[in-house]
């Protein structure tokens, strides 16, 4: 027998009022509203329905969410990735068990309406594969609740942490979906050597690539150009992400226009979380050039900063605010960044509110998308495969 549920009076992003029919976890039909209420139907009473949000970049292994508060330690002489990694190692030694912290963060994200996630997981010569093995277990435990992609992330560099390349290879064999990278120039001081390992492993294991790139200005731009060239040479269009890409936020408009064209042609997606006082990729210009820009919380209460609430709708608000988005179509673009664009960047199958798509959605009290982005209503219900899994930020006990 087909497991079918009718959701009545859903307000879609285009303003129309529809009934959503879900069969075996997918939308089987999106019909004009007005069907007679039948037993077991869920009346959404005109609430706005959005596809579940995409948390496109986070770190499940290093968050202290739900653990003791860790006061932020500032770098001694301006932002320094290496120094921050050292602070992180010290904090993690005193932290609660990783399974527990990762579970807390996952429930926070699901409670706020994210049902797909990409998490980077630290791999280096000191922690080895311990974090990867733990987070693979956490992914398995929560698989019915959220889809998780894992990135084998060389948090301590590749060439400057001997043995890491072999560990990354093993992490991919164990089940990580993508190979990460970290500031090939400023961290490993060897762009070619670093990217040889990253793209070499991607080809060997058929994995995607997602590189953390904080390097700014022309140095960062040079690295972006190298990643573009590697992506095209390896025919990896659509499988490569540059996370942060701060450089795109502080180069000249001409240089940005040239870079955007190349990034779009190479099918590389850019991830931003509109981070605090850092320059960040200009969304409007990049989207106009055809670049997929998506978002993630990145660090949630960890050693990098104390912020992060796991709410991608709030992230859309921050992105819109920092981008100077005021018009309705701009606010809709901010919402796209945490939903459809994220799904495209992660290559998700069956995403959206459409017949045939997975019935993973959020119902919230807002008149339309621009209002949702501005008001960030916390009163929302999250549905996974057509079943309620969270309400008002809390995952329901039976969904765990
Ligand atoms: Zn990150």
Give descriptors for this structure.
17 strands, 5-stranded antiparallel sheet, alpha/beta, 8-stranded parallel sheet, globular, 400 residues, binds zinc ion
Provide a compact summary of the structure.
34% of the residues lie in helices and 22% in strands. It has twelve helices and 17 strands. It is globular and about 65 Å long.
Structure characterization notes:
- The strands form three sheets. The chain has an eight-stranded parallel β-sheet, sandwiched between helices. Strands 5-14-15-16-17 form a five-stranded antiparallel β-sheet, covered by helices on one side.
- Helix content is about 35%, strand content about 20%.
- The longest helix is centred in the middle third of the chain and has 17 residues, at about 215-235.
- It has about 400 residues and is an alpha/beta fold.
- The two termini are about 25 Å apart.
- Zinc ion (ZN) binds near residues 212 and 298.
- The site of zinc ion has 6 residues, from loops.
